């Protein structure tokens, strides 16, 4: 099989090598979306600690800032980091407790005080939105590191702690043939958001930047990429495209959606019928492979991919098979539920003006999990 354009850009979507840590991690539910360990003080509870970052999206925010002088381009990264963490731990039914951030930067390139001010504003806005919808998270500060020898521009990540009753863990073990898959859109605009979202979230940004942004910006700001990788796009960050309904820079820095308010409501009203939850980050439409056992996930009613994904495929020449593995392709979160409740569950995202639909079903598969994507671009099976 030919190497994907994403892999050629130096990114391994399969994250080979992390299996080395499995023997060290004491995971009570190996088939769950996140690691759950027993709380040593409250044995009936599990602790869920998760860490993730905004990927290479900060590089695009940096470029947008350099071209405009507006530090507000950094603000959305706070939502990216918070969403990438909280929307992962809710997949095992954990309630968030506290969150810390980590910011590494090159002080010769990035204005530290202005950056931190924007991130603080971003975190405050996100935490207020979550609280307004009944999701409580304590912000416990974080760490800032000046690393001019290690970081070309900036890197932002975070860590969240959560707790879940061991009897309430969504482990994926209840997923069975006949369950339906509900997809929640990654693009558009919900009732709790201020602007339209391109849907890109935080995965695949390396390829997206390289194939969309013109090489003139790499020449102008060589710190935005390693010499081994060249930008080969046709666009500037301030270029407005009718298909996107926004500029290229806005599309590439659209913050990752906070799904926690919607999922919390789904669990409150239909929790007993939910058998699995999946945040479609690294791995895109194949992320569901990590939960359940001997399940064939058949996705044959996916919505049309958001325009940003169509543009990336066109400009990069990436195969459609790899696109569905690298990107969420318009579905950022999935709820696997019993058939009897699936239609009723759709009423929850509707209240938030979040587009959702039944995108597929679960069938039996012998010996391992499998995903089949049936799209207008072809039929693809993983692994």
What does this structure look like?
By secondary structure, the chain is α+β, with helices and mostly antiparallel strands. The protein has a single domain, classed as Phosphoribosyl-aminoimidazole Synthetase, Chain A, domain 2. 29% of the residues lie in helices and 24% in strands. It is built from 12 helices and 14 strands. The strands form 3 sheets. It has a 7-stranded mixed sheet. Strands 1-2-5-3-4 form a 5-stranded mixed sheet. A two-stranded antiparallel sheet has the order 7-8. Strand 3, helix 4 and strand 4 form a beta-alpha-beta unit. Helix 3 crosses helix 4 and helix 5 crosses helix 9.
The total beta strand count reads: 14
Structural class: alpha+beta
CATH homologous superfamily assignment? PurM-like C-terminal domain
Q: In total, how many domains does the architecture comprise?
A: 1
Largest sheet: 7 strands, mixed
At CATH level 3, the topology is: Phosphoribosyl-aminoimidazole Synthetase, Chain A, domain 2
| Count of DSSP H/I helices | 12
Low-confidence stretches: none
- Measured by DSSP, the beta-strand proportion falls in 15-25%
CATH architecture field: Alpha-Beta Complex
Cα separation of the termini: 12 Å
pLDDT averaged over residues: 95
Specify the CATH class: Alpha Beta
